[in-house]
Specification:
Length: 500
């Protein structure tokens, strides 16, 4: 009997405890019709974000002259953070209605414990809310619109970032620019093996660059854009704020982080803005052994950034790697005439000289007859986009060595503006040894007027041979038609008819 009474008493205690937990625990289950849309505005309407966090200084992001900044700091606000706020809040719908008129909102991380957020829209409207704690499942967060006394749950991604540190609201891409606006790159880079290299590359056309130092030569548009891309893609892993940046504190900081003198001094000039001056200094500690970091500083900035230093490898590369491999530098669409001459090689009988023109939206032979097929277009693409596989020499002593004193093929490309580029194709060069395949034939080539000799793929000569072969066939057909016309008997119109 006593055992039964003890069991009954324990059950009653457990029931009371369960009831208490049920009453005071945060609840976030509700029917779908109790989950209203909390906010609604267009993303582009947001112009100001104020975040007031207990125990921390407020963070204010504001749109000024089309750019977002962190007020009171002079720092650029992170584009990803601003976009995140716009995306998450502009049409925020509650997952559930938790409680109305709570007696103790602090149980939900709200009230005096809340992060208070104020959003200002372009038309002056204001949206305010309190962001609280995660719910017991940690997949939702509590939120209370202000004014209002109802607590809701929303998805975690909608509000969890408001508790992040100030640095997380900063823009991490600190050297961004429009690479199309860049006009010159100048860099002094300390080389891994010792010594320094001065790099000077200037834009000479929309897709053309010229290297003045350390070698005087045309530079590859693709490789130069890659240099620019490595700079503009720099992303800060950490920030070091300089104390007294307008006084002696700047020099002390530069020396402390290996920026005076720097490992690399890079200047990029632009057509429509002030130059960008970037210094790269000593290695910075990294939590990832596969990620090598360095301290970096932009002239005029009050922050030293920690970012990946892999971009230095591009600037320290052999200058020949930057050489322009597209040596014809024509757009195939600009080619309006092709004149090709081919001589027969040993054990070959194909030779000839033919020309085609682009007129009335089609390729025609010199006599105006349309060319059947795509051969002229293939020739224009192969030669206008001719890309060097290997640079042989810039000072050939004997062109006969390369079969270029009497080239196998000479092709003249005429552009719309009347300019001409003449490609000479010579003898067979050193083949390209392809893994797990037969050696790939290559030809010596050069651009008439330039002393440089290159190695190019055999396909360039093949398309020229196709054009000559088709031209020869047309010439044969024309000759046969002419011969047939000559064999047709003619009647003398002046001859008198015989009288009966």
């Amino acid at each position: 009997m006593k055992a039964f009474r003890g069991t009954l008493l324990a059950a009653l205690v457990l029931a009371v405890l369960a009831a208490v937990v049920w009453v005071v625990r945060p609840r976030d289950e509700a029917a779908p019709d109790e989950a209203p849309r909390l906010f609604s505005f267009e993303k582009h309407e947001l112009v100001r974000v104020e975040v007031d966090r207990p125990g921390s200084d407020p963070v204010v992001l504001a749109e000024k002259d089309g750019k977002w900044v962190i007020e009171g700091t002079g720092w650029v606000a992170g584009r990803s953070m601003v976009n995140r706020i716009k995306h998450q809040i502009h049409d925020l719908t509650a997952r559930a209605t938790v409680v109305e008129n709570p007696d103790v909102p602090e149980l939900y991380g709200l009230g005096k414990n809340a992060i208070r957020v104020k959003l200002t829209l372009r038309d002056g409207r204001v949206i305010e809310f309190e962001a609280g704690d995660p719910n017991p499942s940690s997949v939702s967060y509590y939120i209370r619109p202000v004014p209002g006394d109802t607590i809701y749950t929303v998805k975690k991604a909608a509000v969890d970032y408001y508790s992040l540190t100030l640095d997380e609201f900063r823009e991490r891409r600190f050297a961004s620019f429009d690479s199309k606006d860049a006009t010159r790159i100048e860099a002094d880079v300390r080389l891994p093996g010792g010594g320094t290299r001065h790099l000077d590359i200037e834009r000479t056309g929309e897709h053309e660059w010229w290297m003045h130092s350390p070698v005087d030569m045309a530079a590859s548009d693709e490789r130069v854009r890659r240099l620019l891309g490595r700079v503009t893609a720099l992303k800060a892993r950490d920030f070091v704020v300089i104390d007294d940046p307008d006084g002696p504190g700047l020099q002390r900081a530069l020396e402390e982080y290996g920026l005076a003198p720097p490992r690399a001094d890079i200047r990029i000039r632009f057509a429509s803005r002030e130059p960008l001056h970037l210094l790269v200094g000593a290695d910075a500690p990294s939590d990832n052994r596969y990620e090598e970091l360095a301290y970096m500083w932009l002239e005029g900035d009050a922050t030293i950034y920690v970012a990946r230093r892999g971009m230095l490898e591009e600037f320290a590369e052999d200058p020949q790697e930057l050489r322009n491999r597209k040596v014809v530098r024509l757009d195939p669409a600009d080619v309006v005439a092709i004149d090709a001459t081919l001589r027969a090689e040993p054990d070959e009988d194909l030779h000839g000289s033919h020309g085609v023109r682009y007129a009335a939206e089609q390729w025609v032979w010199k006599d105006g007859v349309p060319v059947a097929g795509s051969t002229p277009s293939r020739v224009a693409k192969a030669l206008a986009r001719l890309e060097v596989e290997e640079f042989v020499t810039d000072q050939p002593k004997d062109l006969a060595r390369y079969g270029l004193d009497d080239p196998v093929a000479r092709v003249v490309l005429t552009a719309r503006d009347g300019g001409e580029r003449v490609v000479l194709i010579g003898g067979e060069g050193e083949p390209d040894l392809v893994p797990e395949g037969p050696p790939r034939k290559r030809r010596y080539a050069m651009i008439e007027g330039s002393p440089s000799v290159y190695l190019v793929g055999e396909h360039v000569l093949r398309v020229v041979r196709d054009l000559i072969r088709e031209g020869n066939r047309k010439a044969e057909r024309d000759a046969e038609r002419a011969a047939r016309r000559e064999r047709i008997p003619t009647v003398d119109p002046d001859a008198e008819e015989e009288q009966p």
